[in-house]
Amino acid sequence: MEKLPFRLGIHPINWVGEDVREHGADTTFEQIVDDIQALGLTGTEMGRKYPNDPAVLKAELAKRGIGLTSQWKSVLFSDPAYREEELQAYRKHAQFLHEMGSTVISTCEVGGSLHFDPRRTPNEKEVLRFDDAAWRSLAEGLNAAGDIAQEYGLKLTYHHHGGTAVEQPGEIDRLMELTDPNLVHLLFDTGHAYYGGADPLDVLRKHYDRIAYIHLKDIRQDVLDEARTPNSDFVTCIRRGVFTVPGDGCLDFAPIFRELLDRGYSGWAMLEGEQDPAEHPAYEYAKKSLDYIQTLISQESR
């Protein structure tokens, strides 16, 4: 891999599903991190097969030359009744990531989500969009959480996400407008941007100054087309394989990498596939994706 101005890592969700628990259910932590080392990558996010003891996790990652970049944190700030409880949990999360030497907290509001909101019932069918009061509460909660993150030398990076109330282009825009740019940054996800109806390049250009972390994910257009049919929810789309690694789907990553290189992006960018590893082996798909990225970088450097 040619030298990049930014750091390239990979998410363990390629090996073990987070939203679809049966994906990679028998995969071990050791297999994941051994594969990451074999790929020559030095960054990973927290995964559900990883040891929770910071000392154990540090030792296992260090002997493979890998660092922990982040860990997902769900929040429920759109309902002010949950704010203090959520902020306390956020502080514990920040303490763990600080101890691990991480740089960002991948943060996503679950209020209104069909799958992630603990207040929803199984018979409901769609994401609930926010009214003005919920937007205000969300922004206030995120600003407070961002302040906590800063106490620990971390950045809150907001993950716009399929199947949530902040997935569409206008919702990303509104979140950026309502939050403090010094406290709330953006986790730019190529696959989730496209899933939510945006051109990923447009999101990258429009909000570049807020971006502090990146997920590089591709989309299978035929599965996405099915996802737009009635009663096809977000998790069902993952089971059907809507996401894959860069170079294996419909997205054109050449202008995205050109933009990142031209602007001198220097943070982490994580490869993500989020698909069934029994059908799409994680190491093999990651290797092919790295070869694809190498081709893009070589073309840009000519």
Describe this protein's structure.
- The protein starts with 6 loop residues before the first strand and ends with a helix.
- It is of the alpha/beta class and 302 residues long.
- The radius of gyration is 18 Å and the shape is globular.
- It has helices spanning 29-38, 54-62, 83-99, 132-151, 169-178, 190-195, 200-206, 221-227, 234-239, 254-263, 282-300; strands at 7-10, 43-45, 67-70, 72-75, 104-109, 155-159, 184-189, 211-219, 243-244, 268-272.
- The strands form two sheets. Strands 1, 4, 5, 6, 7, 8, 9 and 10 form an eight-stranded mixed β-sheet that branches. Strands 2-3 form a two-stranded parallel sheet.
- The model has no long low-confidence stretch (mean pLDDT 95).
- The longest helix has 20 residues, at 132-151.
- GO terms for molecular function: myo-inosose-2 dehydratase activity.
- Its EC number is 4.2.1.44.
- This is Myo-inosose-2 dehydratase.
- Residues 34-294 form the Xylose isomerase-like TIM barrel domain.
- Keywords: Lyase.
